[in-house]
Design goal:
The chain has 539 residues and is of the alpha+beta class. The chain contains 17 helices and 23 strands.
Length: 539
């Protein structure tokens, strides 16, 4: 009886789903929508009535919805009640952070970074520590939502047990709401050139960037490097406010276009700029996305800044979160955004996919900046001056993914041997020590293990096993040679990790400022007014 009642309720929901289309003057594909919903309802009913085993309607429906959403684009997702509750707990304003980045591992929770002045930092915790107990509850094999164990009111205390270098320690942590700044570094470089890094477009992005720029102005800044490399984006409102720092009031920053006229919007600057004449170079790379691309694209289109670096990621889609029945929600792409010249920097066309489901690359079209310079859509923001970052060798990326560099730095009892005149220096001897410890796993390693298992029952298993192990030894030797060939890149990553441990995120950026050739190129450009202005003039 319950099964038939649920099916009846599903049919009512289906009718309610179709009903809104009837209110439109020109309902789009109404017959096709009704037809497909009818097929789905019939199939769902027959599965419930006829499948040999008992089914879980919620699991079946969720699987169908998730698969359906995956055919749209990666940004359109369905969230059930559990997903929403987990997100709420993470975002609840009265639940304070413990001031650290964490990673779930077999032994508990590994601290991969602590924030300066945060709760973990104040409690003496360091990157590399592993939390193994919270309030007496062991984390090894814990199946619940760990965020609920860590979260709590600001000022509340939580007891911890953690492991460091094989030793077990007890500690108490007082939760606070200190979060890392989204402007981890701003500094006056040589020749009165200012540098500011922005890591994300959170609610405080514009305020923090405003403060940094004003402090540099008080020091007599003559040009600004705005570093958006690796910035994944965030709030559109913050991107508009930041463009407004450099652009006069009532200028177009970005517009959105959708199938629904109500979703079409135009966003203009609202205030007078704080730095209307300050020369600006914006740094982007392949990981600069969304709001970062709005800022870079708008300043480029309005000929207000020179964009330098690599082509940006290419996300020109806007999402909106909408409620559904029974406490569920979904986030869906509702429109595309366009820079002032009229270009959409979206790189992938999810409407057109190949037979493997891979989205097609959008074609490039030419547009004009305010001064008549050619710019192109269809693949992120193409810099005015392209300077590729040194590519990270594959063996380095693999080592970072597997925590090889992190574990090596974690194994050091002191970082004094890596410091010379308060600068981080990785010697060849220290690299050799790293090389001896580095055990990188590859797909070939897994394949050899499986092959050894597969031939275990063969008559010639012993000789074949010996050959496989000899091949494994050769593979290890090959990996060592690859690591040696990437010595410079590995030394840099080791230095990054040590800087993060010793001097927090702020110190890491300081190290990068002193050793980054792209920042150096931007500074040189800003000290050459003729070259800088030439980029902004019609070609």
């Amino acid at each position: 009886m319950n099964k038939h009642y649920n099916l009846k309720r599903l049919l009512i929901i289906t009718l309610c789903t179709v009903a809104p289309y009837l209110t439109r003057a020109n309902p789009p594909n109404l017959f096709e929508i009704s037809k497909q919903l009818g097929i789905f309802n019939t199939l769902f009913k027959e599965i419930q009535l006829n499948f040999v085993d008992e089914t879980n309607p919620a699991e079946l429906m969720t699987a169908a919805i998730v698969e359906m959403m995956s055919t749209l684009d990666p940004y359109s997702v369905f969230m059930n009640e559990q997903d929403i509750e987990a997100a709420r707990l993470r975002q609840e304003s009265n639940l304070a952070s413990i001031g650290a980045k964490l990673k779930i591992i077999e032994d508990g929770l590994l601290l991969t970074e602590t924030y300066k002045g945060g709760a973990s930092d104040a409690a003496g915790l360091k990157a590399g520590d592993t939390l193994i107990e919270i309030e007496g509850l062991t984390l090894i094999g814990y199946q619940g939502d760990i965020t609920t164990l860590l979260s709590g009111p600001n000022g509340s205390q939580v007891s911890l047990k953690y492991k460091r270098s094989g030793n077990i320690y007890n500690g108490n942590l007082v939760r606070n709401d200190i979060e890392p700044s989204v402007v981890p570094a701003y500094e006056m470089l040589e020749d009165k050139i200012g540098y500011v890094a922005l890591t994300q477009f959170s609610e405080k992005a514009a305020v923090e960037l405003d403060q940094a720029i004003r402090k540099l102005q008080n020091q007599g800044v003559s040009g600004l490097v705005l570093d958006l490399r690796g910035n994944p984006g965030g709030l559109l409102s913050q991107a508009i406010a930041i463009v407004n720092f450099f652009i006069p009031k009532n200028e177009l920053v970005v517009s959105t276009r959708s199938n629904l006229p109500s979703q079409n919007k135009v966003y203009l600057t609202k205030n007078e700029p704080i730095a209307p004449n300050l020369p600006v170079v914006v740094l982007v790379n392949s990981r600069s996305a969304s709001a970062s691309e709005i800022v870079a694209g708008a300043l480029q289109d309005l000929d207000r800044a020179v964009v330098l670096g690599e082509r940006s990621f290419g996300k020109g889609l806007v999402q909106q979160q909408k409620p559904l029945a029974y406490g569920t929600q979904f986030k869906i792409t509702i429109s595309r955004y366009y820079t002032p010249s009229g270009r959409c920097i979206q790189a992938l066309d999810y409407r057109n996919r190949n037979d493997k489901g891979v989205a097609a690359q959008r074609n490039y079209s030419e547009f004009k900046t305010k001064n008549g310079r050619p710019v192109f859509d269809g693949g992120g923001v193409l810099p005015d001056l392209i300077i590729e970052e040194e590519s990270t060798p594959g063996v380095v990326r693999l080592a970072l993914e597997q925590g090889i560099v992190f574990n090596y730095v974690n194994s050091q009892k002191t970082f004094d041997p890596f410091l010379k005149d308060n600068e981080i220096l990785i010697t060849d001897a220290q690299f050799d020590q790293f090389l001896a410890q580095a055990k990188i796993s590859t797909a070939s390693d897994s394949a050899l293990v499986e092959l050894e298992k597969a031939i275990a029952d063969e008559d010639s298993a012993e000789s074949l096993t010996a050959s496989i192990r000899a091949l494994g030894d050769a593979l290890e030797e090959s990996k060592k040679k690859q690591i040696k060939s990437a010595k410079t890149a590995f030394k840099q990553q080791i230095a990054y990790e040590i800087a993060l441990r010793l001097f927090y995120r702020e110190g890491l950026y300081q190290y990068k400022i002193n050793n980054d050739r792209i920042i150096g190129q931007a500074r040189q450009l800003l000290t050459n007014n003729e070259q800088y202005n030439a980029f902004l003039k019609k070609q």
